Amino acid sequence: MAHAQRHAAPSAYDRLLATRLGAQAVDALVRGESGVVFGFTHGAIHAVPFAEVVGQAKPLDDDLLHLAALHTVSAALHEH
Question: What is the C-alpha to C-alpha distance for residues 1 and 11, in angstroms, rounded to an integer?
Fold first, then answer.
């Protein structure tokens, strides 16, 4: 989804990460595991039970929000 946030085509990294996450999901299903979502943190793929993430609000990093706002303004200025 990072490429969608960047409004750009998926990079090789995006495609590889999607492939790795998908492979982990298929492996989990083959093992009979369900009710989990896979994510990539600290350089590794981790399974997290849906119950731990559904309905949970994750706080946003104020510095990243500020950076995103600057990027939006910069992109808008360069469109014209």
Answer: 11
Tokens of 67: 């950076």
| Residue 45, helix vs strand vs coil | strand
Question: CA 76, 77, 80: angle at the middle one, nearest 5?
Answer: 95
User: How far apart (Å, rounded) are the C-alpha atoms in residues 68 and 54?
Assistant: 25
Instruction: Pull the structure tokens for residue 78.
Output: 């360069």
Domain boundaries, the chain: 2-79
What is the value of pTM for the model shown?
A: 0.59
Query: What counts of helices (H) and strands (E) characterise the chain?
Result: 4, 2
Please determine, for residue 80, whether its predicted confidence score (pLDDT) is greater than 70: no
